[in-house]
């Protein structure tokens, strides 16, 4: 089957799962996430015994320091979507406590897995042997192939189970994005239709369907890589505004109830603000056209908001 139509079918299936109920979607997400984490743990167990520190030093900066900034979009995409946890607060038991725990556990899990996977993949033969330029979009199987060959049982097991990582990310983003669109509809910044929930399943079905249609339209453009880069622009701007909001609200609303308080305030928000600002500048420099598209859409959206939401 053509990959494009396979993606369209996947969109229909996962949107349907999310419409049928948040409990079903969350349970499914938990199961495939556990499988994905197990797959990365298996990869680390097979490769780390063959780790050599010298492989980490082979041609470390082929494009100099400039290459670090050019790689920022890919680094951010690795962690993109974690903030979506906040979107399911209304469907969470004791959200003040459990959402905070969810953020802490997810950040710790991603940080540890990213660190271990990087060293495990590059440490067996250097980054050039697993780079995208040589083997497409499968760096982990390429790293494992240097140990087991590309016909062993573990190699094929890794390739098969590795798909669950993509599935987990996709389903999680669908779940969070549906709630974002729903909030726009509920506050009447979108047509109120998208602020409705299904009478039986109590899920934002119209919002999920709208997101599905937009996603399928993007697939048919053949420019999904550019859309991902634009989404990174959105994430960085979200981080910047979040940091500014924290700094501002601590001054204007000092007595506001805060179930979670940022540790080491104001240093952590300021550090995050600086990092996000540098990332935004680097993204804009290396993706000038896409930056113009993103900020153009933002300006147009702001104008429409002012005109249509009086």
Structural overview:
The protein is mainly α. The protein contains twelve helices and no strands. Helix 2 (22-47) packs antiparallel against helix 8 (153-186), helix 4 packs across helix 10 and helix 10 packs across helix 12 (288-308). It starts with a helix and ends with a helix. The model has no long low-confidence stretch (mean pLDDT 84).
Element layout with pairings:
Elements: H1 3-20, H2 22-47, H3 64-70, H4 72-79, H5 95-122, H6 132-135, H7 139-148, H8 153-186, H9 205-221, H10 224-252, H11 267-286, H12 288-308
Quick structural summary:
The protein is built from twelve helices and no strands. The protein is mostly helical and 310 residues long.
Radius of gyration: 21 Å
Oligomer: single chain
User: Biggest β-sheet: count, sense, barrel?
Assistant: none
H/E element string? HHHHHHHHHHHH
Helix count equals 12
Q: Which structural class is indicated by helix and strand composition?
A: mainly alpha
Number of strands: 0
* Stretches with pLDDT under 50, minimum 5 residues: none
State the end-to-end CA separation. 49 Å
Q: What proportion of the residues form beta strands (DSSP E)? A: under 5%
- The overall pLDDT average reads 84
What portion of residues is helical?
over 70%
Whole-number tally of structural domains: 2
């Amino acid at each position: 089957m053509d990959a494009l139509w396979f993606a369209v079918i996947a969109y229909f299936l996962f949107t349907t799962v999310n419409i049928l109920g948040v409990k079903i979607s969350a349970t499914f997400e938990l199961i495939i996430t556990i499988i994905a984490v197990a797959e990365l743990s298996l990869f680390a167990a097979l490769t780390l015994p063959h780790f050599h520190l010298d492989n980490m030093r082979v041609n470390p900066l082929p494009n100099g320091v400039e290459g670090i900034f050019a790689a920022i979009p890919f680094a951010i995409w690795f962690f993109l979507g974690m903030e979506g946890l906040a979107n399911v607060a209304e469907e969470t038991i004791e959200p003040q406590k459990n959402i905070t725990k969810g953020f802490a556990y997810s950040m710790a899990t991603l940080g540890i897995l990213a660190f271990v996977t990087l060293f495990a993949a590059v440490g067996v033969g250097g980054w050039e042997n697993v780079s995208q330029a040589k083997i497409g979009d499968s760096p982990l199987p390429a790293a494992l192939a240097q140990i087991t060959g590309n016909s062993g049982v573990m190699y094929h097991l890794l390739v098969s189970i590795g798909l669950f990582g993509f599935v987990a990310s996709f389903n999680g983003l669908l779940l969070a994005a549906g709630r974002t669109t729903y909030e726009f509809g509920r506050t009447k910044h979108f047509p109120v239709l998208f602020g409705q929930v299904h009478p039986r399943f109590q899920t934002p079905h119209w919002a999920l369907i709208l997101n599905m249609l937009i996603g399928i339209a993007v697939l048919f453009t053949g420019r999904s890589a550019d859309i991902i880069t634009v989404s990174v622009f959105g994430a960085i701007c979200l981080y910047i505004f979040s940091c500014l909001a924290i700094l501002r609200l601590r001054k204007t609303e000092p007595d506001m109830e805060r179930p979670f308080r940022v540790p080491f305030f104001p240093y952590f928000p300021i550090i995050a603000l600086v990092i996000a600002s540098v990332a935004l500048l680097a993204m804009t420099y290396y993706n000038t056209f896409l930056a113009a598209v993103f900020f153009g859409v933002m300006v147009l959206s702001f104008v429409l908001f002012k005109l249509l939401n009086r």
